[in-house]
Every structure is written in structure tokens, then in C-alpha cells.
Amino acid sequence: QVQLVESGGGLVQPGGSLRLSCAASGSLFSIDAMGWYRQILGKERELVAITSTGGRTNYAESVKGRFTISRDNTKNTVDLQMNSLKPEDTAVYYCYAIISPSYRDPPYNYWGQGTQVTVSS
């Protein structure tokens, strides 16, 4: 079955950079979109960035100009380059994808297990 696995989380100082990666595996008939959400402690999960096969890309206003999402369709991966990190970026970051496992299956939302990003001095 479909699985999303994140990597690259960790501790970084304010102003630093971090790169998150997510790989999709399993039954992947089609992937309509891949992206990243995050959940800051005490807040609801929120969209960080997402990109679709059609070329549409959306960023949260709070990360525009600092984060860059990129997708490799041949490897079924999506990365999130995070620059100029701030303490308020501290959160659990979740990989997200809209995937049809087979031609018989409708698109479905899939989530990774999450990776912790901590921005602190």
C-alpha cells in the first residue's frame, strides 16, 4: 500500500536552513499533488507548501520567500528547502500527497508520520 516517509528534520538555530525530504512508495498509479503541512504546538495543522502535477504551487504567506518546494516526478519525492528559519517555524512537519493507488481507486489523501523541526538558540 501507499506509504510516505519523511526525513531531514532536526534542530537548527534561527536564521539557519534545513531541507526536508519525502518519498512515496507502494501502489502509485497517479500522484496528483505532494506537499507539506505542519502543526505548531497548540495550533491546528496548516498548509506550508504544495505542488500539483499540473504545475500549481501554493505557499503559506508566512513562509513565502523563505521556503521552496520541489518535486521529482521520476522519483516520487518532494522536498522542502527551508531558509531563514525562525523560532515560530518550530513544528512537526508532515508530508502530504493525493494519490490514486490504481486506476480503480479514487484519489485519496495520504500523510507521513511527521518529522520534528525545532528552531532555537
Looking at this protein, list some descriptive labels.
121 residues, mainly beta, seven-stranded mixed beta sheet, elongated
Describe it.
- This protein is mainly beta.
- The protein has strands spanning 3-7, 10-12, 18-25, 30-39, 46-52, 57-59, 67-72, 77-82, 91-100, 108-111, 115-119.
- The protein is built from no helices and eleven strands.
- Strands 2, 4, 5, 6, 9, 10 and 11 form a seven-stranded mixed β-sheet that branches. Strands 1-3-8-7 form a four-stranded antiparallel β-sheet, with no helix packed on it.
Cα Rg: 14 Å
Described by strand count, sense and barrel closure, the largest sheet is:
7 strands, mixed
What fraction of residues sit in β-strands?
over 45%
Give the N-terminus to C-terminus distance in angstroms: 40 Å
- How much helix is in the residues? under 10%
Q: Regions with pLDDT < 50 over 5+ consecutive residues?
A: none
Output the number of helix runs: 0
Please write the string of helix (H) and strand (E) elements.
EEEEEEEEEEE
Q: Which structural class do the helices and strands define?
A: mainly beta
Shape descriptor reads elongated
Annotation, overall tally of beta strands: 11
- Average pLDDT score: 96
How would you summarize what this structure contains?
With 121 residues, the protein is mainly β. The protein is built from no helices and eleven strands. Strand 7 and strand 8 form a beta hairpin.
